[in-house]
């Protein structure tokens, strides 16, 4: 009876020490790729971000966004020239984990806590 309790206690002790890696500052600038699905079709977009501007390249279109960093791992993206009311909505981005050249992020319209989505961006070049 003692051994299962001791094993469980050791497991809890070691698992509580584990923290996910978040080197968010490594991903503030650079050129990135993001793969997503629309209507079951997988698409890839590319974006280039410096500290305050992000330029998106997708489906032969180019869009520019402002970037406002809240902290090292969270930022707000907003289109500079929105074409619709929906385009004018700011997007809150939060980096959840990082690896060598990728980061997992969560995003939603600012203030929308119910419709969060996740994605992975791959850093393909430094600036």
From TrEMBL:
Residues making up the signal peptide according to the UniProt record: 1-19
Highest taxon of source: Bacteria
Keywords: Signal
Protein name: DNA topoisomerase IV
């Amino acid at each position: 009876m003692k051994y299962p309790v001791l094993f469980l206690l050791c497991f809890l002790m070691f698992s509580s020490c584990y923290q996910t890696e978040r080197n968010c500052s490594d991903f503030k600038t650079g050129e990135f790729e993001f793969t997503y699905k629309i209507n079951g079709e997988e698409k890839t977009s590319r974006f280039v971000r410096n500290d305050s501007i992000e330029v998106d390249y997708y489906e032969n279109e180019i869009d520019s966004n402002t970037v406002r960093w809240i902290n090292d791992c969270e930022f707000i993206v907003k289109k500079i020239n929105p074409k619709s009311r929906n385009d004018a909505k700011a997007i809150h981005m939060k980096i959840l984990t990082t690896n060598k050249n990728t980061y997992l992020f969560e995003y939603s319209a600012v203030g929308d806590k119910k419709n969060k989505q996740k994605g992975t961006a791959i850093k393909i070049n430094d600036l």
